[in-house]
Write a structure and sequence with these properties.
single chain, about 140 residues, mainly alpha, two-stranded parallel ribbon, 2 strands, RNaseH_sf, Transposase-MT_Hybrid, Transposase, nucleic acid binding
Length: about 140
């Protein structure tokens, strides 16, 4: 189960890898985190940890399900690829998930962040109310354009 202490452990491993893989962006300070309102993400020790590491955090409205990109992009892809598969050991799961993540084109991630920008504007237009249905209707209406 994920809690604040465990989440800091995950962030620490992630940041070390980020320094290895994207050292220039780390030096430039161009990395940022988009955290939802899950309890481990909002715990004071996590906030202090992120502030101490001087990582920018993208602010967003509380409980903004319409803005949570992993729910719309990442998790469905992982679920679809892994559904019905059984793994004997945790390293098997890690290896398979890593392979899946590495197979997603960079352009797909870029499109996801562009969509998050559009969703943020819809959140403002809807004054914080849920807007997924309105956004779906908008896309259907303008598909032919």
């Amino acid at each position: 189960m994920m809690n604040a202490v465990r989440y800091i452990e995950v962030l620490t491993r992630f940041m070390k890898r980020l320094c290895r893989v994207r050292s220039q962006s780390v030096r430039q300070g161009s990395q940022c985190f988009f955290l939802d309102d899950a309890l481990p993400h909002t715990a004071n020790i996590v906030k202090h940890f992120i502030a101490k590491k001087m990582v920018k955090q993208i602010e967003h409205p509380s409980f903004s399900l319409d803005l949570n990109s992993p729910d719309f992009f990442l998790f469905p892809q992982l679920k679809l690829a892994l559904i019905g598969k059984r793994f004997e050991h945790i390293p098997d799961i890690q290896r398979n998930v890593t392979k899946l993540l590495n197979s997603i084109p960079n352009e797909d991630f870029l499109q996801t962040f562009q969509n998050m920008y559009i969703r943020s504007h819809w959140c403002i237009i809807m004054e914080g109310d849920y807007f997924e249905e309105q956004l779906s209707n908008f896309h259907k209406a303008y598909q032919g354009c």
